[in-house]
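quick one
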Amino acid sequence: MHTKPLIDTVAWRNLVRQAANLKNVTLRDLFADDPARANDMCLEACGLFLDYSKNLIDRQTLMQLLALAESQGVCGAAERMFRGDRINETENRAVLHTALRERRDVAICVDGEDVMPAVRAVLDQMGVFSDAVRSGAWLGHTGKRVRNVINIGIGGSDLGPAMAYEALKPYSQRDLQVKFVSNVDGTHLVEALVGLDPAETLFVVVSKTFTTQETMTNAQSARAWLLDALGDEAAVARHFVAVSTNTEAVAAFGIDPANMFVFWDWVGGRYSMCSAVGLTLMLAIGNENFSRMLDGFHAMDRHFIEAPLEENMPVLLAVLGVWYNNFLGAQTHAVLPYDQYLARFAAHLQQMDMESNGKYVDQDGHCVNWQTGPVIWGEPGTNGQHAFYQLIHQGTKLISADFIGFCQSQHPIGDHHDKLLANFLAQTEALAFGKTRDEVEREGVKGTLVPHKVFTGNRPTNTILADKLTPEVLGALTALYEHKVFVQGVIWHVFSFDQWGVELGKALAGKILPELLTVDEPALEHDGSTNALIRRIRAARGR
Ligand code: G6Q
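structure w/ glucose-6-phosphate:
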């Protein structure tokens, strides 16, 4: 229970004043007034270098933002999460994704029971299984080795591993084709299966509950596709494995419990890629690379829990996000990786962030009167430069952005990487410093064209730079954002680890489905629009 509403705290009020003070200050001024700025406003941890000097803050703002984090109890909250307290109060669960990548020989207890032996046992089981599949020792029902792995899952049981599989493709075994199927739209499964030999195909069905409509529908159709070709129920045991917390439902599906990989209710879907939910990823990149990724996650976990607030990378990203979101009126935050392998990174963060902090009720059950989670979006550079960057440079909205780049390319061909990095750097420079009317005119531009070529600058960015996109770096980068989201949730005083909005969607579709299917005209009790749309779709489909 917080004694004072967030916006009435001293720390908050100081920041409101500070936003007014800095209203007319530009990044040009800030850099000119403080020659040490670029040197000081940066930080290195876990293989990541963060330059946050191109933000619309001065040193005082930063101190005030950190004071806000401190006054909201960020350190204590992090400790409670790491030690296994039931901080997910609306679901009465602990939140222990950090235990999944704990590399030290320590006990982490939930209700007095150490979870680490089970965590290690499942990782070992995954390792044995993935070695067997990758080496060809695991054979399909007809004796052929596995050439295709299809992950069936959605949301948290899809986005993290799918993102990491794309990111770590250079570390994957290329003769194993890996695909992720999530959408209940049959197109997704059908297209994934085109040209595949069922006798060489392994399905990994990933669902915490093992009841999710999309995943169960895809899994049933995949099962039918397999049995249609192989004609023997016994084939299911060689071609399907499950990742779940629901043993009974897995057995009822016909999957051999010996081929089930468990995780626990203290692993939230969108924070689950280090658990058995990452099995398909491990099949692709192997046990060793998976383990290297966990090392990276763990390194960032330790950094987060140990580093003082002012040298804490997730905390810095979090408070900067709060600054734009709550004091400068930004609605969205862009994540722009300059690496094609991170094509799915923004999608993963979108779920991680928006499902966690997209809440309008605070931890005391009151409606908030401050902004909570921003809209997260992004695409890899340089593609975005030829599309939506126009609005970031010259639009009317303030958009903060993280630029993520790597010094070394996975594919050093020609001068591609130099060009990529030149763009990476040029964009944040232009966004920060813009181009004045004088500069435009000095380039020879005249008359009515001048204002169109002026860039106001002052568009804030973080630059996150690493040497190379290795498994360790991907782990550290992903954990960086996990903890950033956590810190923001603590500051906004929301419960970051439930997702009642998702649950609503699951229930609503269940009501409409039979209304689409019945032969007789159903009695529709929705609003006028929904009733009419249901009738139109029924008519179009001959019902
Ligand atoms: C994640 C959400 C949600 C969930 C999916 C799949 O944090 O809870 O995205 O992961 O709805 O749920 P199952 O794993 O139970 O199928």
